[in-house]
């Protein structure tokens, strides 16, 4: 592709993203405004709206957080040499309460994680948090999420499997498109953010899924990008 065409395509992606973000933020804002107006006119009803308003504010916060991650340049990465297990165990501890809350078994399998890797712990955390959260969201009560991680030769491999509903070929094609979500409170930005972080760390990400048979997401990152 020539440079000019590439530039104009980038611009059109930015325009589409901005329009999408504005739209996604405007909806909850309109709802918040409406509930505040009703509450102002009917003080006795205010308590009923507190929870909805907080939900909508949380939604805006989640969208803005994801969006900020998307606009962070690759040059802001701060590499550190860390033991792989340090980062991975932290994320699993962080997500355990959420898994327990939903009665989901969060299991992990680790190989050679005492090895060190060169990475930005914050971004690596974010990758794993996004993938595990999606897996937890996908499975039913009593479902299972398995996080397999291993350092082998020059690569860190993370794979997150779940026994949720899986994805159809059409859904698989859409995953990672901005605002593609099937959740009531989803932003549809998580996979996109994850893909960007993985690319910034010079890694690869792939989805394997079959309807009715669960999903496995595999991320491979070079140990020394
Ligand atoms: P969000 O989680 O806010 O919906 P994401 O970009 O993280 O946004 O995910 C987009 C969509 O991809 C989800 O709404 C869901 O439909 C689908 N998806 C992602 N991970 C899985 C998974 N492990 N199993 C089934 N569907 C998934
Ligand atoms: Mg998500």
Automatic annotation (TrEMBL):
All residue ranges annotated as the Histidine kinase domain in the record: 20-225
Protein name according to UniProt: histidine kinase
Organism of origin: Halobacillus mangrovi
Lineage per the UniProt record: Bacteria, Bacillati, Bacillota, Bacilli, Bacillales
Full-protein interval shown: 382 to 606 of 606
